[in-house]
Write a structure and sequence with these properties.
The complex is a heterodimer of chains A (405) and B (46).
Chain A (H helix, E strand, L loop, with lengths): L3 E4 L9 E4 L8 E2 L2 E5 L5 E13 L3 E4 L4 E4 L6 E7 L6 H18 L11 E10 L9 E6 L2 H20 L3 H4 L3 E6 L4 E7 L9 E2 L10 H10 L4 H10 L5 H9 L1 H12 L4 H18 L11 H12 L5 H14 L3 H7 L8 H14 L1 H8 L5 H12 L6 H11 L2
Parallel strand pairs in A: 10-11
Antiparallel strand pairs in A: 1-2, 1-13, 3-5, 4-5, 5-8, 6-7, 9-10, 11-12
Chain B lengths: L4 E11 L31
The chains are: A alpha+beta (405), B mainly beta (46).
């Protein structure tokens, strides 16, 4: 395996060349495929042209009348994965990217965090009359999020289709490079495509060739940890989760790791899955955070679920506690103490409160006795209201049934 | 996606964010630092 110099001048690379690999010359990988699962459970295969290593360029930010350059990421290691042109919809493109992001994360080679700019895509789009004819390939450069990839494909297909319908396709659609503009939701022409030989590749003289021995490759293969697909199978077959929940949990390694940590702490799989796929992901998406950045660690979540399981707090109180822990960044036990959150599970105390409710609502009792059975829930509701949601709901129902006999 | 046959190829760039240094220089590979503070004079930009 070796590196080459790709010569071009642009402010994001002031030394005038990028150290990269030039497939199909000896690069990290040529060929192979990834099987991708869609949300509906069907699968499709994406064949890989190559995977090569290179150095990243600087980050350019274009403002109204000026541009800034940040060289912090220039020279960072970058993996470029090039697929064959075998994808046929924007949804499939995003499903593929999400799968690859998971693989990178699970293998521990990258956080693959779009928010930190770790992931960028160039998207090649073409349209044709049918699958046997080829259209003109248009490249959309540097698309920075998966949702933008989706939108850029939709826009570009629409643009090219419209030109074809108007008979202007051959004249207007050239092999060119465009860029995606998030603000206007359009692609904008940058330049006509530069052919590969324009970069004047030659072997990088300062970096020796690297021999990847069979033994080394075997070692790397053996070090590959449990991948998302394997975790998904485990979640469904061993833990009894639904495919829907399993898919959500495995998508981001950090989320899956959080779930695994909850299991180690003794939280039941279904309970942990419900909390994560519901409340926790809702919270982190709303506040644009990563799951490992929130105060509610798996340990703290396990404290909440333990208290629900032991009957100390109700499910409703657990939800309140969840938000209070995140808001105040205090231990669940402290908040329970400060807020007097412990569930009332004392038969005598609950009976007295229910009796109060019944004494205050004689006409409703008459209605109940006359056959209006939904008044039962009314009494439960009134009792819960009086106890500020602290009464054990199943005890309330049992005692109420007794008292209304 | 409409009446035409759509063909898409992807080039996915993923930054190796978990190395301590950049790939060919000792400058640090860190996120969220002040602009232009992780630049190695050895190789100008990387």
């Amino acid at each position: 395996m070796y590196w080459e110099r790709k010569n071009y001048y642009y402010p994001d690379l002031p030394k005038g060349y990028q150290i990269t690999q030039n497939p199909p010359e000896e690069c990290v990988g040529n060929g192979g495929y990834i099987d991708v699962e869609r949300d509906d459970g069907s699968t499709f295969r994406v064949t890989i042209d190559n995977l090569h290593l290179e150095e990243d360029a600087a980050q350019l930010t274009h403002l109204y009348d000026t541009s800034t350059i940040n060289y912090n990421r220039a020279g960072n290691p970058l993996f470029e994965l090039v697929t064959d042109p075998v994808i046929h919809s924007a949804d499939d493109a995003v499903a593929f990217l999400e799968t690859m992001r998971s693989i990178y994360q699970y293998c521990g080679v990258s956080e693959a965090d779009s928010k930190k700019g770790h992931l960028r895509c160039d998207v090649n789009v073409s349209i044709s009359e049918d699958e046997n004819t080829k259209g003109t390939k248009v490249e959309i450069k540097n698309v920075c999020s998966f949702s933008s990839v989706h939108d850029a494909i939709i826009y570009e297909v629409k643009r090219q289709s419209q030109l074809k319908d108007e008979g202007r396709y051959d004249e207007e659609v050239r092999q060119q490079t465009r860029r995606w503009d998030d603000e206007t939701g359009t692609t904008i022409a940058m330049r006509d495509k530069v052919d590969a030989e324009d970069y004047k590749y030659f072997v990088e003289p300062n970096i020796p060739k690297v021999k990847l021995t069979e033994e080394f490759i075997k070692k790397v293969q053996e070090s590959i940890p449990e991948l998302p697909k394997e975790r998904k199978t485990k979640y469904i077959e061993k833990l009894g989760l639904s495919a829907y929940d399993a898919n959500i949990l495995i998508k981001e390694k950090k989320v899956s790791d959080y779930f695994e940590e909850c299991l180690k702490l003794g939280v039941e799989a279904k309970t942990a899955a419900n909390w994560i796929t519901g409340q926790i992901l809702g919270f982190i998406y709303k506040y644009d955070k990563n799951i490992d950045e929130i105060y509610l660690t798996p340990e703290r979540l396990s404290k909440i679920t333990e208290n629900v399981k032991s009957g100390k707090i109700s499910s409703k109180q657990a939800k309140d506690l969840f938000f209070l822990v995140l808001e105040r960044e205090e231990e669940p036990e402290k908040i329970m103490k400060d807020e007097g959150m412990e569930q009332i599970s004392d038969d005598g105390a609950i009976k007295a409160i229910i009796q109060e409710v019944l004494d205050e609502n004689p006409s409703q009792i008459e209605q109940y006795k006359a056959g209006k059975t939904n008044m039962f829930d009314y009494f439960v509701g009134q009792t819960m209201k009086k106890t500020r949601g602290q009464a054990n709901p199943s005890l309330v129902r049992d005692i109420l049934t007794e008292l209304l006999k | 996606m409409g009446k035409y046959f759509v063909t898409i190829g992807l080039e996915m760039h993923c930054e190796g964010s978990l190395t301590n240094s950049k790939v060919f220089s000792p400058a640090k590979n860190e996120y969220n630092k002040l602009p232009n503070c992780n630049v190695s004079p050895i190789s100008t930009s990387c």
